[in-house]
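I'm stuck. Please check this protein.
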Amino acid sequence: MKLIVGLGNPGSQYEKTRHNAGFVAVDRLARRWGAGGAGGGGGGAVAKSRFDGVLWEMEIKSERCLLLKPLTFMNRSGNSVMQALNFYKLQPSANLLVLVDEAALPLGTIRLRADGSAGGHNGLADIQRAIGTQSYPRLRIGIDPPPPPMALHDWVLGRFSTEQESLLEPSLIAAADATECFITSGISAAMNKFNAPPSPPSPPTTPRSSPSASPSPVASSRPALKPPAPVPPSLTPEP
């Protein structure tokens, strides 16, 4: 069993804000696998109110999974995660993946790590406080750093523009794909596949002329060199 947690803030005033990228990513994954809302509606798993959050129980890639959105506000996410881990007796290092926004990453990119510090993120910091370890996988979704002189707090609580939403879309698809890879193959496989930099474009190919082809008479503008004039016999030096 895997526990997939998306972090964010509850309430309509925080919908579509940058800090709620984790919520958006989990919602996307839930819809991909046929989840319904609180009253069903999707013909699949129904969202339940459990562990101080919204929870879906479903099968993803033939693996039993829990999708959790804590509703305790970002800086108090830890207790919700701890409750779910303890109830199902799950190991954070192997069974937990946290999806979260990251201002240090460019918009449209993602980054996975198997463990590490909170990196200044209040949601991750509270999870580490609650579960007593920083050894758990996390998937960061890039939202761009704030433009100066805007404060980070104001930036993350601001909403994406229409143009920024279109730039965010590839990272939401990648986050869902990477989460599925984590579920089936583990964090190392997901990191190897989704942390790889994009392949550089191939250099343009310079066409080669055939070795047997005769050079074009107009290939060069330089005049052909004339052979040197023969030396008169009388001026030929003695050996």
In short: Confidence is low (pLDDT under 50) at residues 37-43, 207-225, 233-239. The first helix runs from residue 21 to 32.
